[in-house]
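Marked as duplicate of an earlier ticket. Keeping the data here for the record.
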Amino acid sequence: MLPPPPPPIDYTRPYSLEEFLLLDDHAAAPHELWASQIVPKSGFDPHHPAAMAGVTVAHSLLVQNCLAAFRSRLRGRQCRTLGPEMRVLLPNEQIAYPDVVVTNHSAEQRLGQDHLRNPLVIVEVLAPATQVRDREQKLVQYRLLSSLRQFVLVSQHRIWVESYTRPTASADWTSHTYTSLADALLVPALHLSLPLRELYDELELGPLRVL
């Protein structure tokens, strides 16, 4: 006899990591765990607070373009590029689903594992429902990962890429912003240069505007 399904997620109460993993494994859409609170990865719809926000075509294109850019250049190297369905375990028993994760093959050996602990590069595509979390909670928590060498934020509304890098776990973080299709995102830890024209391929963006 199969065990009964877990109860519905209660977004108003705190959860332990063990409780979250049980619920998330059976959820129809991915969720994240922040300060013991469960939130949909896509965020809540600001017009309907009880409902999950949707994902735009622009967001989906940017994620796929970033995945393709990394995978095409890292093929045959000791790295894996994974998409938004992969969980990352963060300090303080928090869980995130980054849009793009590049991890060292030797540091993440088991193909059967359901979460990562040692990402090298993380990319998040900003969305109205999640940009505050991406810029505040995630920016802080991701940078606590000793393995992480670069965290990238990509705007879907204008040509705007924010990159935070450090050469070693003990080094200070430095930031750089790219705002032109003629620019290329530098990924020093992997010795890569990703043209923004490639990352923003197929997107039709209007005049630049502030998020």
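See parent ticket for discussion. The longest strand covers residues 119-125.
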